Structure formats: structure tokens, C-alpha cells
Amino acid sequence: MKQLEETRMVLNLIIRKPISLIALIIVFGFVIVGFLAPYLVPYPEDAWGLAYNVENRFSPPSLQHLFGTDALGRDVFSRVLLGARFSLMIAVGVIGIALIIGIPVGVIAGYYGGKIGNFLMRVTDMFLAFPPLLLAIVLAATLGRGLLNLIIALAISWWPWYSRLVFIQTNTIKNMPYVDSAKIAGLSTFRILYKHIIPNALTPTIVQAALDMGSAILEAAGLSFIGVGVKPPTPEWGLLVSEGWQSINVAWWIAFFPGLAILVTVTGFNLLADALRESADPRLRRTILMRLGIKQ
Amino acid sequence: MNCKAVSKFLLIAVIAVLIAAIGAVVYLARITGPTFETTTPPTLVSSTTPTPITTPTIPSTTTKSVVVYASLSEMVTADPSTEFSNSILWLCLVYEPLLWYDPLQDKLIPALAESWEASEDGMIWTFHLRKGVVFHDGTPFTAEAVKSSIERTINLGQGAAFIWDPIDRIEVVDDYTVSFILKYPAPMERIVASSYAAWIFSPKTPNTPEWFNEGNDAGSGPYKLVKWDPENEVILEKFEDWWGWKLTSYEMASPNAPDVFVVKIVKDAVTQERLVISGDVSIAQYVPIEDVEKLKENPNLKVVIKPSFQNLLLFINTKKSPLDNVLVRKAIAHAIPYEDIVKVARSGLAHVASGPIPTGMWGHSDDFRYEYNLDEARRLLSEAGYPNGLERTLTLTYTAGDIYEKRTAELIATSLKKIGINIDIRPMSWEEQWALAQSGWENPEGAQDLFIMYWWPTYITPFDFLYNMYHSESKAFNLAYYENPEFEKLIEEAVYYEGIDEEKALSLYYEAQRIAHEDVPIIPLWDMVDVRVGRAEIGNLDKAINPAYPTVIFAQVLSVEK
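ok -> C-alpha cells follow
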């Protein structure tokens, strides 16, 4: 009951701030487009890279082709639209896998401590020792190009951050009186972890994960741009920018629109994450409420 | 908190702009080296970077004419005996062979040799050497240098050393006469004009690759090497004592040749285009092909379009089912939209290939094109037992980063889908895809099904194409794993007759190509047309390009104002 109220409050806060509202709309729109893209695109064959049109290369934006056409005469608007789906898949996939690896490692290391904890955290540190983007580039290049490989590469460079976060939380929570009483009551370790520790350790991690969605999209685009990401003719945004870069002097629109899509989406995610963090932080929340003239 | 949101937005905007402009960043990083001004009057100008700009041999007070040539790929080695890669770009200016070959006029141009003759049976070739030639280290050039250079190349046995395979021994007749005694007849006049491994260097050279790779040269050519920084730039300076400057009418020399020639590595076509438009480089090796029409209209630039002997070919894994069936291979050959590929991939700047020998080269014939006809392709496919297309998805690999190969691959995949063949396009690094393709000799199931690759000849002979890509002994480049004894016998016979009876050699090469055309191990796609863009003030750019020596700009024939 209390949690529901909390959620309503956070939502309320977001909607009352115009910039957060815009962010929410962007993210919401992105998700919808991501789901429905295959049904929305005006030229599905162009979007999937199944067709080309020699006579229609490099036509500038027009009513027929809102974002113009590319070097193979394909509709850029369709490709950008379908690209939203791949970006959504990447964002969800990367963060999801990173959480699936990161949370158990952090919880186990934090709860048991000692040798196991030390071992797990040193492994985590090993991954943290590499600059994340560099690690992702190396992994993606080793695994070879492809959507799944790209997601795996990014997730591997991502999970240690979550396991760190969860580890610190678990460390604090495991000494709480309610955990002690659960132990005395004879609950199994699994039950203690599952019922008492994970739910309480998760909040900051979830906020962080939401915050990272935008970065995941940006990094995936970066990897595709430098040629270690998805395979052509997948209309991934980073790949679209890199394809368009070659013809930037004759046809600016091929690189511009996918670039714009990246900019808008990533900005949307980041603003939303900011709003979330503000409302989750009690001190920040109070100042906002005061400014908005709401009594708590 | 609005202010924070705005700053966040700005931050992300900046990041996004940065990513979109990665090329520009690369460009800036590339330009931190020395910069040469090439506008009139061309002066050697030092940039503000703290690094030493010029070697002490170029006093910065005198006015020197400078030409900067942007190369797309970096240099690797500098040993004239073994180098078989990008250094051709400057080796042709620093070293000289006995003869040059101009394939467009089918003419040999004397270099270190003034005249030559072959014995009746083509087994003994005698070259009469030029007098009064000195190497850059001051050593006079004699027949002994020819013998020692070629023998070093043969003994090291690396790179293109195979061109000397016909040689049994080299005899020094006198100081200015040298004879090659052969094991079998061969067209030595063309072999000595090879683009690799044919260089003559000073006999006083320390005989180690390290010495060369430290940036020393031992050549006799019109330019000497003054700076060797293979990943960034190579600087050449005029060799005043070159014999060619003194001749009044030598076609390989111009009185206004640049004093300094700089090869600058700029690894991106868009950046090269920017640099040549702004005048920071004088000649660009590659510009985005679709911009060529626009560049032609620029009064400050000159676009030179010349044939090249480079072509792009599609190799088929002939040892893997269902591609071991010649009908399936023929179906694929008829389902490739050759004309569209030339229009899309090269903006029309290529010829649809007809056989593996490029347009304009001797041995080429127009009889070996496959017709783009989807009905015929479908018919062949059902005749082969696949009326509904292939079940297995075929993999097609190409070199990642090559935009022409990428577009070609995409069009092939799109078109093959129409006859029910699904293609998985896989970009790979060149080393990786080459290794994978070579592994197919051992394990054809593990190798890719289709493979796109360029070829260009070491010296101008059809044998170079037909042996390297089609002969079963050539494990490194016959990546279709094609084995046909009849074909192999024909080309071996043909190369034998090259030195004796060219007509006979031609008809044998024709017959060999006809067999390959029927067996379809390889589908030649297009023959490249070369585009170089130079500043308008650089004269004779057209003369400085020779398709037998790809990527080279013969700076000694350029004409620039002081």
C-alpha cells in the first residue's frame, strides 16, 4: 500500500515538471514505436534492407520520403523508425542481462562475505579495471558482429557496476535487526535473501538501471558506428549514421536523421532518469515539493 | 532543477555531436603532423606544432615546391626486395626497375636499361644498361648492381619474388650489359617492369631488412627518402643527380617536378575530400565516389578518371553442398544485377566484368559476361533440384569498412533472395576472412560460402589472374578451391608461349577463360575505374597515373610552379 502511494507520488512529481513530462513522453513514444515499428513503417522492404532502388538514390526529404533516401535508394524514415525497435531491444537486453548477472553476484558476495565474497568482488574488480567502452569494443570485436553478440558484449562490460551497487546495499542490510530475527526464526538462507534482502537492496539499482538505458543505446550506436556492432543491412541507428557519413557531402539527411533519433531518445532517457533520482531522494524531493507549493 | 536538466541536455547534445563527428576527430588527430602549404607560391610552411617539422636537409628558408598526396592506407615495410603491399606508392619514386611498362599504350619505357634483346628461343635476355647513373649513396650503377639486387630478392624469397622464377642465372657480360639465362621461356621485358620486387638498389647496401625498415633508401630514382614514419607520413625529396633530370626529352621526367613529395596517411575518404578541397593536400587517393560529379564542377580541382587493372570478384565455395553443383553456381551468376551494382556501388565508375581479366588489359575478352535474368536463374535452380530455392542460408563475407564491397554484397543478397537463396552478409577484417577462406582447403564445410575479394596483377599478364585465383597449386588465393586439370594445362602452356608466340598464348588464355566461365568457380563482378582528385595547379596529373603501378603518383612527371 505504501509502495503504491510512493509510485503515485513519484509520477505526480514527474508530470508536474514540464521538462520531465517531455522526457516521459519521449520515452513512452520510443517504447511504443519500438513495439509497433514493423507495422508503422511506410516502406517495410526498405526498412529491413530487402529492396533497393537504383533510380531513386539520394533523393532529398520530401512528402514521399520524409527523411529522404540513401545510397541504395531506400527510405531513410522507414529505416530510422525500425531502428527504434533494435535500440529498444538492445537497451532492454543489455540492462536485463547485466541485472541478471549483477544482482546475484552482489547479493551472494555481500551476504556471505569472507572468502566467497572476496573472490566474487575481486572478479568484479577485474572487470571494473577496464574502461567499460574499451572492454565492450574488445568483446564485440572478438565475438563478431551481430545483434546478440553486441548485447552480450555490452552486458558483460555493464554488470560489475550493478553487482558493486547491490553488494554495498546487501552489506548494510544484512546487519539489520529484521534479518537477524529472520535467521533466528529459522528461515532458509534462500528465503532470507529472496524475501528480505533483495527487495530492500534493489531500489537504487533499479534507478541506476533506468538511468543506464540511454547510455546503453548510445554505446551500442557507438559500437555499430565503428563497425563492431550489428551486421548490415540491420537498420541500427549507429550503423545508419556510419553509412550516411560516407555520403555526407551529397546527402546530409542519411546520417542526420538517425543521429537526431539517437540524440532525442538518449536525452529523453537521461532526463527521465534525473527526475526519478530527484524524486527518490527525500531531501531533493522536499525542495521540489516546496517549490511546487505542495505540503507533505 | 531546471538548470540541471538543461545542462544535462546540453551535455548529451555535445556527446551526440561528438559521436556523429568522429571522422572529424580522426581528421584532427591525423593533421597534427607537419603541414605543407601547396598554394602558389608553394612554400614549405611549418605548422605551430612543437614537433620538428622538416628534416635538416630541407632548409626552411628556401622556397620549395611541395606536393602532398593523401594515401588511404598506412605503409608497412620498406625493403625493396620483399615489400608486397602499400609502399609501392613511394618505392616507384625512390627505386627504379630496368624498364617501366605503360599498359594503356602497350609500351615499354626505358629506365635503367636503354635497350634489350631476346634470343630466338626466348631463353636468354640481354639488357644494355644506362651509363652515368648513380645511386643516392653515390655508388655508380653497373651490371653488378642488377645481379646483386635481383639475387638478393630471389634469395629472400618473400613478397613478389616469384616473378623471377623463370631465371636460371644472371650473367654480368660487362659493366653495362647483363644477361638473364632462363629455365623456360618467359616475357622478361614485362617481368622486369613489375610493380613489386623488380627494384635495383645499391650493391653497397647493408643486406638486412632492418636497415631498410629504419627508413634508409638505396635507390637510384628521382626522389630520395628523407622521412619514414609509416603510420603517418613519408617525405621524399628530389634527388638532384638523377639521370632523368638531365635528359631533354624523357617521358618519365618533367622540368617542373615538385622538390618535395609527401605521402600523408589519411584513412578516410570523406576527410581526404575535405583536405583536397581546402588545399591542405594536393592529391587525394580516394574520395566518396558519389561526390565525383560535384567535384568535377569545382574550378580549383581536377578529377582524373583512368582505367585500373583492379577488379572485384565473388568466390564460390565449390566444395560445399549445394554449391558443388555447377547448376546452382550458374543460377547465382544469372541472379546478380551487375549493372545495378556498378551504378550503386561505384556510382557508375566501373565496368561490368567480363571474365577475370580486367577491361583494357591484354587477354581480356567481352565474351564472358553472365546475363542478369532471374527466370533463367530460377530455371537453373529447379533443374538442379531446388525449385523452391535453397534451404540453407549462405554466408557471404566481405572486408569490413569497404563501402564498395558492402554495397555490392547488399545488392547481391537482395537479388538472390528473389530466387529463394537467403544470404547472411558478414563483414570481417581482411586477415580474418582471408584466413577463414584459406581454411576451406582443409575443411570446406567450415569456410564461408561466398567471398568477395579484389585482385590486381603484379606484372601485366593474364597468367597472374588465372594462376593465382584458379590454379589448384595456389592455395593462398584460389579461394573457390577450383580444380580443373584441363584448365591448368591450358594456362601453363599459355605462359610458356608468352615469351615466344603471343598470338598462341592469347588463344590459350581465351580457351582457359571459356572453361572457367562454364564452371563458374568465381563470378567476376566489376572492373574498377580509378578516380584521383588533385588541385588544379598540379599539372600532368593524368600522366602521373599508370594502371600497371596501382595507387602510385609518378611525381617526377608532375608539373608545379615554384
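The first helix of chain B runs from residue 2 to 20.
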